[in-house]
Structure formats: structure tokens, C-alpha cells
Amino acid sequence: MAVEKPSVEKAVTHFDQHRNDHLKDLMHLVRIPSVSFAGFPPSEVVRSAEAVAELLAARGLEEVSVLTLEGAHPYVYGEWCKAPGKPTLLLYAHHDVQPPGDAELWKTRPFEPTVCDGRLFGRGAADDKAGIVAHTAAISSYLQSSGRLPINVKLIIEGEEEIGSEHLHEFLAKQRENLQADVMVLADAGNFDTGLPSLTVSLRGLVLVEAEVRSIDHSLHSGMWGGPIPDPVGALSKMLASLLDDEGRIAIRGIYDRVRPLTSQEREDYARLDVTEALFRKQTGMAPGARILGGAKNPYETIWRQPALTINAIQASSRDQARNIICDSAWARVGIRIVPDQRPEEVRDLLVSHLEANVPWGVEATIRPLLADSWWMTDPTGPVFEKARRAFSAGYGKETVFIGCGGSIPFVGPFSEALGGAPALLIGVEDPYTNAHGENESLSLIDFEGAVRSSIHLFSMLAE
Amino acid sequence: MAVEKPSVEKAVTHFDQHRNDHLKDLMHLVRIPSVSFAGFPPSEVVRSAEAVAELLAARGLEEVSVLTLEGAHPYVYGEWCKAPGKPTLLLYAHHDVQPPGDAELWKTRPFEPTVCDGRLFGRGAADDKAGIVAHTAAISSYLQSSGRLPINVKLIIEGEEEIGSEHLHEFLAKQRENLQADVMVLADAGNFDTGLPSLTVSLRGLVLVEAEVRSIDHSLHSGMWGGPIPDPVGALSKMLASLLDDEGRIAIRGIYDRVRPLTSQEREDYARLDVTEALFRKQTGMAPGARILGGAKNPYETIWRQPALTINAIQASSRDQARNIICDSAWARVGIRIVPDQRPEEVRDLLVSHLEANVPWGVEATIRPLLADSWWMTDPTGPVFEKARRAFSAGYGKETVFIGCGGSIPFVGPFSEALGGAPALLIGVEDPYTNAHGENESLSLIDFEGAVRSSIHLFSMLAE
């Protein structure tokens, strides 16, 4: 019996008619406070995994199961593999979320999804429960309208992405056969602007260290003892100040040596992005007088393709408890985002050595490496990327751009490796106003609809 | 009827026989948690004032009263003025105490006085309830043995010293006639070493500012945005690093211009102090490799006679909450201890201007002055200081030293002024191991006894 070819037009029409059902699926997931951080109830992440499994089954996926591993928040698996001879896509998203943050800063309740001004507000509304529902909505739209998909799909929905995907390697090793696929679609990235379809082709890596400086074994009265005793806060300030030059660039010798120069293709891609200083200042909330550092015409070139050093936190005594003391110690955490072709361990070692070499006054300094994760970059040429570009242009009704991302998604590298280098398409629904991880996280409904329609087109194009 | 001259020998003998009664008086006061800080029950400070008034009356003082002022913790007054023609001493101490601090670090309970290894442990055991009892013990020893004192005394026991003596000016203005005296004895200072009688002749002043740096209106993901945005923590580090030179001296132009050179007498006094580097390191708990800064042979010369800059506290995000963010702001509090002849407002303005001049990258910086209190110094020559020197040498059985103090006691200046410049004797029982304001505060019983015997001698000598 000849099987009718699934129709992309029917699927898109079906989605347009049933958009609200999928939005309800998303709202249902957002209501579950599946915060994976220590100190939050893991039972909610379990509840969230169960809700995701129910959703997958309800939307027509098969072999649905909740995957557990000792000490890990549960992952969820589902598949539809009834298109023999057609490619298999591995679809990824995660169902865990960040802590809500400061309750007073939320204008709505974080776990009560609320639509306002064309956006859905709530923790996880974008990052990354929208990623889950973008997958299920595309799949369901085909199954409901044509009874089948044009390709095979396997879904893996992670439960510990926000805490570093600690067990991902183990899951991938255990599920390696299950997960074999020709293309990966990771729905946890974003669009360059609202409604502007974007494929992310690079991520920065991350090196983290903490520095602790100590000169006395207990805090002393700053009047009774101030003068002969080296101030640990002053010492740490000098060490940290030496890390950045007058232009805000990293002042560690040799740190830029391996940075891969931009290709002419990258220069063209960046030149096509319409970025004004005013827009960038609006997106970031920069103080009016603050300089845009980095020297590039386009600040995104700096974010995507240059290493950047940030002091994420510093503390000695505290603002609340400030007293007339010489602090016994001072502490800070320093991160460097790294780019092709920097080597994580080498950058880590350069940072540690630089800090150690700049300790003044003989104070005790302990520099502890915390993390050294690699950057990721793909070559977005070849048929898969060309099809994806066309699918997303069709789905959003706008020309697709290839962008970088300044952040890190540590699982992309291992995922790609586990699948023997299958092309990875990083897509997603976060626009510059999403405020993922911050308060008042929100999803643009334009991006949500665009992502679903693009996936519908993508399934069809990759089947050809 | 000729009145018998009060006998210093009888008084000393009486004290030696009744030392424990006075120690019990002290322990009774220590049991009352008279913490004057906001957030602690003011009723305990009232209870403490009442206990002090009872003690004064029980030990033979007259006209005892609890002095109250709207919004102030109560002061206590008492006098014995039955030696016509003899000088009048104004004796000062305070009955309020610091908060206990970290309960886990106390080896005994802070408000349960405990004798161990020749020291009395407890909050206020030294600072400054021992000051109160040193006064009452000396007075009582005369009254019990000779029936009278060789001089007139007026006691003022403050209840708000630990929170800055905010109402002292008002009290002094209100009580000006009551408080007229020829000499002040302020028992709130310390000895250079355990059992080494010391008269404090200088105090440093204090200038405080807080600095806040801001470059964005909310914290941003350091991966997504790191590079073009000036890091507020890096900016603050650069500003603070510029305050101290490679030798740990203050690197603000002009800050040392007015510092009064040491006199040859001071040089002699300092040379007499037996200070080794090993002792100083032991007293302060300095890290083995940390350099002793300041350049002086004697670190106390640096503490007493050189300005010193300390960053009392710094914070951006926090050690507990450290995340991958660019902090929206960073904050620090900076203090400079000032010495003769520096001018508080001038030092404050120099500090503010220096910080403002060193703000990098156009970030927003707000520098707020918090305090500008003056130094104090007396000329320890003339008969009163000579008699005091002899009295303390007799009381402790050791040669008295004249010392400075790196801390500030803001009421000394106003007190001296209110009494038309009467000589001020700063004495006290804190030795380098007292750990006043810290956990495990303790009083050396050698210092306690020495202070009482010295006061007995002092009353007698000043009567001559």
C-alpha cells in the first residue's frame, strides 16, 4: 500500500488552527516549578518529567519513558521511527529550570504562566519548556493532519541542564544505540532579534577560577591594627585590577595568541546584522556614559568571537555587616569565556599563573580552578544547513541569519561526538528580551510560532 | 576635729584582701547582655544601667542617678565630693557592650563570665565593664579602709559608647556644671602588653566613604553579554587598587603632606618599647609570608602615627550566590585612619576625588562620605602626667610606658573640650590578647588588679 506523503502545508495549517492547544501544553509545564538546583525539591523535577512523558505520549510519540540514573534528575525519552529509509533527527530540549530569583522583581508570579503584550511570562516559559513544546507541536501537527511524519524523530528531554548536565555523558553512553541519528536539533538557543530566525553556529567555552587572599588568621580592628598588616581586600583588588587593561581587554600575556581570526564569511555574516549602538544599549540596559568595549564595530562580534573576562562575584565581610575591620580574607570568582582556537586548560593555567604572579605584599593567595569547558563551533555549510536555512526562512517568513552565541552549552560538544559528528542545528526561542535566568523571563509568541512552523518545514526538507 | 589622711597602703591592702568581691561585681555586670546595637533589646541596657547605679551606691558613691535622654541608652552618674580643697577627678567608663558575634566561635558562653588561665572571659569583661569596676574598687578600698577618699571624684558611666556616643555632646552640655573637674580619667584604653602599665596619649581619627559602581541596570548573563560591557567589579577593583602603592602606603597625592613628624621624645618612647617581629606576628595572627608594611622599625609607630587605609568590606553578588553573571553593580567601604595634623574633611575630599578620578570605562560611580572624625593627641608633660606615671608604675610594679592607639575614641576630644582642656588620662585593661569586639573577649586578672592598685595610688598622688 502506497503511503501518502505527509503534507507540510496541512501540518502548518493544523498548527495555525491549534496553536492554543500547544500553548496550553506549555503553560501546563510552566506551572511545575522544576528547579534542578540544590535546595529546591527534586520531587518537582520528577513531577515535571512525568508531565513531559504524558505530553509526549499524548502528542503521539512512542516508546515514551522516564530515564533515571542514581543521583540525577530524570530525563525523558520518546520516538517516532516509522519512516524507514528516511533520516532520523535527534531532538533535544530540557525540562528543568533556573531558580525564580528575586520574587519582588517579578511582575507576574514565576510559576503562573501569564500572557501579556504578545509574550508568555513565567520561569521556563522560554528556557526551555518552549523547546519541548516546539518539538511536540511540530510532531503533533503532522500526525494529526497526515497521520505520519516525513522523517524519524527521537526526543531526549534533559532534567539537569541548568546545573551543568553532570550525568549527560553517562546517559549518552547508556543510550548510545537508542540515540543514533543523522542530524541533531537542539532547541535551547535563541534568535538574534524577535521573529528573526537564527541558527547558532558557535558557542564560547568557559574557564572559571576562584581566588582567596588571606593575611591574618582572624579579622582585626582596623583602627587598633591598621597600617603594618597587608589588607587582603586591597591585595585582591590589585590582583583583579591587573587582569584587565585600560580598554577592558584581558591583560594576561599570551591569552589572545591562539584566537582564530574571523573568516571573510563571518565578516559578511556579521555585516548583515543590523546592530546600532542604541539598540545594544537598550538590550543590555547599559549606563548612558559607559563605554562599549572590545573595539569591534559590532558588539556581537566581540561577544561571539573574542574571549572576555568577568569577575562574577567578590566578597570580603559584606555590605550588610560592614564594620571597622581588616578582613581576614577576601574572595572572588573570575570567569573567562573562550573562543576558537583557545585551549581551555591552557587559558585556565594562564589565568592561575597571572593571579599568582600578581599577589602583593606576601599575602597568602589560593587560586582554585573550578571549570575548563571548551568552545564549540560548526562549519555551517553543506546540505543540512542549507535546508535548515530555507526551512527557518519559510517558518518565520524572514531571511535566516547565522549567529554565534557568547554563552556555553556544555552538552553540544559531547552530543555531537556521541553521534559521530552528526550536524548539529542549534535553534531556539530566546530573543534579546527573554531574560532567561533573570526575573520576568518571557517567550515571544512570534518566536514560538516561528519555531514550530520552521520545525514543520525542517522535517519535510530533511526528508528530501 | 582633724580628719585622718586616707592611707594608700591601707587601701591597697584592703583591695588585696577583697579582690574577689570586686571580681564578683564585675561578673554580675557581665551577666547582663547590655548590647547597645539596634536589633538588640534596649531593656537590657536599662537593666545594666540600674545594676551599675546599685553598684555605685553599694560601693559608697553619692548622688547616684540614672541619666536619661530621649532616644539614648541611659548613662549613670555618681560622686564622692567630700574632700574640700582637693582636686576633682572625672572618672569615665561605659556599661554597654558589642554584640557577641559568632556564637560558634566562643569557647565559653559570652554572657556567662568564666575564669580560665588567669583571665576572665565574657563579652564586656574587659571592654568596658572592667573599667567601671576598676573605678568602684579603688573608691571602695579607700572608703572601707580609711572612711574617705584623698580627692573628689565624679563618675560618668556611658550607655552608648559602642554605637558612637551619639548623645554625649547633649549629656555633656546638660551636665556641664555637675561634671566640672580638674583631671579626667577615662578607663577605656589598654596596656601595651599584659601587666605593662600604659598611658595612651594619642588616638587616630577616622574617615569613611562607600563607593558604588554600576554599568548596567540589571545583572546580565556573563556568557551571553560578556565582552562589550564594562565589568563593574573590574572597575571597582581598579579604583581600589589605585589607593595603595607597592609598599602598602596610601597612594593618594598629598595625603601625607600634613602628617606631623615624630618628636625626639616620641622616638625615645617608641625605642623603649620591646617589640619583636615574632611578637607582633603572634599578636595579630599574621600569615607567615605576609610582609609587615609601613617601613618603621616598630610596627606600632606605623599604627599610632601614620595614616592607614583599609577596605573594610567589598561585595558584588556574593560567595554563596556566585553565578555566571556580569554584576549590575559593585560596592565597597573604605576607611582611612588619620593622625596629627591631618584634617578630616580634607582627607575625606582627597579620598573621594581620587576614587572619582580613577573610574575606568565611563562606568557610573557614586562615592558617598560616611564619616570624618578627628584624631586626638595630648602633650604628656607636666605634673599630672608625671604623677600618673609614678602611680601606675607603683600599681603594676613596672615602669609605665606612654603609648599611642591606632583606634578612635570619638568622645575624648569633646570631653576634654567640655572641661576646658583638663588633662585627660587614658588608662584601661585591654592587653593585646583581650580580643575586644571579637569572640572570646577576655580580661587579664593581672591587668585588672594593676589598674585598681594604680587608681588607688593615683588618687593619693593627685591629692598632693
Please sum up the structure shown.
2 copies of one chain form a homodimer. Chain A contains 13 helices and 18 strands. Chain A has 464 residues and is α+β, with helices and mostly antiparallel strands.
Biggest interface pair, residues each? A-B, 86 and 86 residues
The whole-angstrom Rg of chain A is 24 Å
Instruction: Please give the number of β-strands of chain A.
Output: 18
Class per helix and strand makeup of chain A: alpha+beta
Describe this structure in words.
The first copy, chain A, is α+β, with helices and mostly antiparallel strands. Chain A has 3 domains: 8-203 and 375-463, Aminopeptidase, CATH 3.40.630; 205-259 and 307-372, Alpha-Beta Plaits (2-Layer Sandwich); 260-306, no CATH class. Chain A has 13 helices and 18 strands. The first copy, chain A, has helices at 8-30, 42-58, 129-146, 168-174, 222-225, 232-241, 264-272, 277-284, 299-305, 344-357, 383-396, 412-418, 445-463, and strands at 62-67, 75-80, 88-94, 114-116, 119-121, 152-158, 183-187, 198-203, 205-214, 220-221, 308-316, 325-326, 329-338, 364-373, 376-377, 401-405, 424-427, 442-444. In chain A, the strands form 5 sheets. A 6-stranded mixed β-sheet of chain A has the order 1-2-6-3-7-17, with helices on both faces. The first copy, chain A, has a 4-stranded antiparallel β-sheet with strand order 11-13-9-14. In chain A, strands 4-5-18 form a 3-stranded antiparallel β-sheet. In chain A, helix 1 (8-30) packs across helix 13 (445-463), helix 3 packs across helix 13 and helix 11 (383-396) packs across helix 13 (445-463). Chain A is globular, with a radius of gyration of 24 Å. The model of chain A has no long low-confidence stretch (mean pLDDT 94). Chains A and B meet through strand 9, strand 10, helix 5, helix 6 and helix 9 of A and strand 9, strand 10, helix 5, helix 6 and helix 9 of B. Strand 11 (308-316) of chain A pairs antiparallel with strand 11 (308-316) of chain B, so a sheet runs across the interface.
